[in-house]
Amino acid sequence: MSKVDVVLGLQWGDEGKGKVVDVLTPNYKVIARFQGGPNAGHSLVFDGDGFVLHTVPSGIFRPDSVNIIGNGVVIDPVILQDEIEAIEAKGMDITGKLLISKKAHLILPTHRMLDAASESAKGKGKIGSTLKGIGPTYMDKTGRNGLRVGDILSPAFIQRYEALKYKHFGLLSQYKFPFDITEYEIKWFQAVENMKRFTFIDSEFTVNRYLDADAPILAEGAQGSMLDIDFGTYPFVTSSNTMTAGVCTGLGVAPSRVGKVMGIFKAYCTRVGSGPFPTELFDATGERLRSIGREYGATTGRPRRCGWLDLVALKYAVMVNGVNELIMMKADVMNDFDTIRIATAYKIDGTVTQDFPFECPDNVEPVYTDFPGWKEDITKVRRYEDFPEAFKNYIAFIEKETGCPVKIISVGPDRSEIVIR
Question: Can you give the pLDDT at residue 43?
Answer without folding.
Answer: 75
